[in-house]
Amino acid sequence: MSKKPGKRKRSQVGRTAKRPDRGAGHGDEGPFREKILRGRSNEAAVPDLPSQRELEGDVRRGRVVQLRGREATVAPDGGGPEAVCMLRKSTRMPHPGANAVVVGDRVGFLAEGDPPFVLTEVEERRTTLQRTRQGREAQVIAANVDLCVIVASAAEPSFKPRLVDRFLISARVGGVEPALVVNKADLADAADLQAMLAPYGRLGVPALSVSAETGAGMEALRELLRGKTSVFSGQSGVGKSTLLNRLDPELALRTGEVYGRQGKGRHTTTASTLVAFPFGGAVIDTPGIRSFQLAEPTLEALDAFFPEIASAAAECRFADCRHAGDAGCAVPEALERGDVNEDRLDSYLTLRREIVQGG
Q1: pLDDT at residue 36 in the model
Q2: Cα distance from N-terminal residue to C-terminal residue, the chain
Q3: Full set of structural domains in the chain with CATH
Q4: Interatomic CA distance for residues 31 and 106, integer angstroms
């Protein structure tokens, strides 16, 4: 399924303004960006009102499509060349810290002189997809998206329902509608694919099986994405970039092989980027991950994201039942009837232990 690395277009949404070469170390998640933004945690230092220069200048609106250190590439509303903008101390933003600006943010910028232009304002976010990284604050992966496409694979690497559930919860917490897309359907039989998709379909989550290799299911995927701003998220090696190349061959995104005995994928996407679809809508392609920790989950919230288990638990003898071999627990019977999926129950119990131990 590997493709030779293609040359990424210089412009993803429009024609990119010339950006001075800043050298290495400017990835949107690297230590350089954290160093630059560390001092922004003092909210009092962020101006509340526009400056006189801003009021009198050519302020435009747009959407962040890529980040490189302090520089944000912005696609202006109404089309036209992309604008490279610089984050300044004068930038007004409601999200100080390492998440001050992320791909998908709605922003204002002062278009005067030569680029990079001044980023004047970051707007409040309508939706977010975020996770917690070990020992750090929550990381916002994408902002202002309508749909979180959780990309998994039927094989190579194997389907990981627990990781899917974590993405599902994070999407719904952030106000984003989730969908499950199982790629590499050509490597599994129909019965196995149905077993992967069925638990999520019963929850009302759109669930598709596709193959970037053969093209199977791609038209259904286009219809799912059409007219929406989506974010592709999932484990490394599941074929997110390969799927996007199949949807729009002109993207020519780099793809890679799965390697090693454990079936781990290589990180071929190294920074989040927003690209437009020729059939309508746009997508944020994110780097693959191998672990996903939820940001501050609670036991109360957990039941809302596992409604089938909560429904079965209503019949438990004791209100504080942990559903892990407790006397009088009704969940095992629901599991036998097929009302509860075994993988989903394992996800629930794992997350419950993490919440209890973390508290």
Answers
A1: 36
A2: 43
A3: 31-122 (2.40.50.140), 128-285 (3.40.50.300), 299-358 (1.10.40.50)
A4: 24
According to the model, what pLDDT value does residue 58 have?
A: 87
Is the separation of the CB atoms in 263 and 156 below 8 Å? yes
The tokens describing 278, both together, are: 């020729």
Give the per-residue pLDDT at 256. Answer: 47
**DSSP characters for 60-110?**
EEEEEEEEETTEEEEEETT--SBEEEEEEEEEE-SS-STTSS-TT-EEEEE
- The torsion angles phi and psi of 21, rounded to 5 degrees, stand at -75, 120
Task: Report cis status (omega within 30 of 0) of the bond before 278.
Answer: no
94-143: per-residue pLDDT in tens? 887 778 999 999 999 999 888 899 999 999 999 999 987 655 678 899 99
Tally: H helices and E strands in the chain: 10, 15
CA atoms within 13 A on the CB side of 294: 29
What single-letter amino acid sits at 155? A
**The overall pTM is greater than 0.85:** no
Please list the alpha-helical segments (H only) found in 126-203.
161-173, 190-201
Angle at Cα 168 formed by Cα 330 and Cα 329, nearest 5°? 10
